[in-house]
What does this fold into?
Amino acid sequence: MDKQADSQVENEWKLADIEYNGYSNNDIIKFLSQLQNQTHDYLEAKKMLISAIRLVKKKGLTTNKKMTGGYVKDYVDTWIANGLTSVDEMVKFENNRNERSTDNQRESNVLIPTSDQIQKQNEKLAKQLGYNTVEEMGKASWNLLVELRNTRPERMANKAKTGLTATGHQVLKRF
It folds into this structure.
């Protein structure tokens, strides 16, 4: 491999403030080799690896996390798995990927129910259960819970006598 090219990638790695350890040089060589096998062009592979490093740096600045070579590996593996062979293809792929993630964020915001939707749902449930208002349903539910709490010791004491489990199933007869 071209020693100058490796040092250029290594300098990018260090400038991106990605953790550099005893394995980093081997990682860089491995990533370049994998990308070169995919692109069949050493310079294109080098450009793609530098792009991955810069994307990791950008991601690190936005998330305030310490970046490692694993993040670079994720980009390289994703690009190889998707058959990308040039920087242009990679740029298009990453742009589409970013658009999809922002679309997913917009969808997740839509799925959060509003207070109006919750109120309508509660009114519908109250009507289905035979109550006139949501407040009536709430009071009845509260009263039921209070009654259950007050009668719990008595009900628990009767469980052994009735031979039923907590779910109402018959237990094995005692020997």
